[in-house]
Amino acid sequence: INPMTGENVPIWLGNYVLADYGSGAVMAVPAHDERDFEFAQEYKLPIKVVVAPGDLSAAYTDKESGELIESGDFNGLSPKEGREKIADFMEANGIGERTTNYKLRDWCLSRQRYWGCPIPIIYREDGSIETVPEDQLPVMHPTDIEFTGQGGNPLTHSESFINTVDSEGRPAKRETDTMDTFVDSSWYFLRFCSPQDDLEPFSKQDIARWMQVDQYVGGVEHATMHLIYARFFTKVLKDLGLVTFDEPFPRLFTQGMVTMASATTGKPEKMSKNKGNVVSLDDAVNRFGADATRMMTLFMGPPALDVEWTPQSEDTFAGTFRFLERVWRAATALLFQANWRENLGEISDADKKLRRKTHQTVARVGNDIERFSMNTAISGLMEHVNAIQEWLNGKGTNAAVYSEAIENLLLCLTPFAPHLSDELGEKLGFGQSFYTSTWPTWDAEIAKEDEIIIPVQVNGKLRARLSVAVDTSKEDLEKLALESAEVSPFLDGKAPKKIVVVPGRLVNIVV
Fold first, then answer.
1. Where are the alpha helices (DSSP H) in 93-180?
2. Which residues, at least 6 apart from 502, have a Cβ–Cβ distance to it below 8 Å?
3. Spatial distance between the Cα atoms of 245 and 234, rounded to a whole number of angstroms
4. DSSP letter at 118?
């Protein structure tokens, strides 16, 4: 029985459900999971759409966008908000509770190698096992080991290491297996906080000051190896009361690689000297400057994905250089007013449009930087320069509005082109270097659009775009969509079976 609605829920057996995941039974959501959708179509099961936009032609699986529909009191929420609100409701009403399913399996950490932490175990002659007494820790590996290259664990041949005594002085043998090296590398960040401490692994006072790590940046291979073990160790240390948190790295970003065709295989591979596919940026810096080179590499594509370097890639340096020239011309076109805040006064429609773009740009660039989306942040700056140039060529009259646009442009440009930004700042009379300036603020009211574009779908396919006022009602959106000349041919004179309207987002007509 569905605890939220009281409806009976049929039980089906599916060969794609993992028996060892969770309880072995999962909730099917055909409208929003591709495998569940295919299963429901095969066996003609009902498909209920609860996230718009969505229809019965394919599963809508975007977990970040869309809006809840057919969900009672939770209608209108985003999927992310809806998940939290529904979970809150279920916990508050005793229907269910949040749980976390871990996929980490048993960890076999012993290795037959010299390299690794010794396992502090000794074996008595009677076959019993004893841990190494604490006053004999740490166990140290011998340094006179002979590495023969014949395989096997060289520690098994070291009599001085193997032969020892137990806590009562009787002959015993040491464990020769060593621990997986992940045991060493899974908590190094904690030791970094107290590198000089010779009494304990780390000081709680130091940990409280330095941890957690705000942002971890590393290769994608870390996400499936090192980071799993680091999280595992941290959770164990929390259970032992040695740290107060169970996640060492709240934010993770895995960057892509710049690849290039290998001189040996001809296929795009990670750049390396032995593959003959390394490109030096020294020539680009000498020709176009450090700022243009820096911006070009950041503008190549999403930093989380690999990007291929081709001979045509070098042409982009010139394009980035031309953009920075446009920045210089735009910033020096008129007399800059450092006290622009005091001189805004009455503004025209053209001035209002530029102010809107300025505040939208500050919001967009700041948000993109937070998301590590440097390429789209730079794209936003390019759009802003276009808006400034349009203002200069058009009917803009308020120099204070222009000065606001230039100041915020240079502040937002500083992380990407620091030398040009600071030189322009000095030329225009800023009192301090942008390096020591705070990030600009933006006003949501000024940034708000007067009109927005609403996509209109027919059976899930885009058929029209409506330019409407921001506050256009649900009823008016439906009326405008049905009257659209671009939509009419796809209705074929038939009355729609269903119309889903999400104000401010979309209209989806099902025929």
1. 159-162
2. 52, 53, 67, 69
3. 8
4. B
When the pLDDT of each residue in the chain is averaged and rounded to a whole number, the result is: 87
Q: What is the pLDDT of residues 282-292, one digit of tens each?
A: 888 888 899 99
Per the CB < 8 A criterion, the answer to whether 352 and 416 are in contact is no
Residue 70: pLDDT over 70: yes
State whether 332 and 429 are in the same domain: yes
Separation between Cα atoms, residue 445 and residue 341, nearest integer Å: 17
- Using CA atoms, how far apart are residues 211 and 237, in angstroms rounded to an integer? 14
Residues 6+ apart with CB under 8 A from 196: none
- Sheet (strand 171-174) strand order: 129-131, 121-124, 171-174, 163-165
Domain that holds residue 443: 316-447
pTM of this prediction? 0.64
**Tokens for 479?**
């009326």
Q: Are 174 and 164 in contact (CB under 8 A)?
A: yes
**Cα separation of 74 and 69, whole Å?**
8
- Residues 269, 259 contacting (CB under 8 angstroms): yes
Distance CA 307, CA 349 (A): 42
Segment among 59-63, 205-209, 372-376 with least mean pLDDT: 59-63
Shared domain for 397 and 367, answered yes or no, is yes
Per the DSSP assignment, residues forming a β-bridge with 413 are none
Give residues with Cβ within 8 angstroms of 48, minimum separation 6: 30, 31, 70
- Number of domains composing the chain: 5
Domain boundary among 47, 68, 101: 101
d(CA 22, CA 114): 39
Res. 360: pLDDT tops 80: yes
Six token digits for residue 76: 């209108």
Q: Cα dihedral angle (76, 79, 81, 85), rounded to 10 degrees?
A: 90
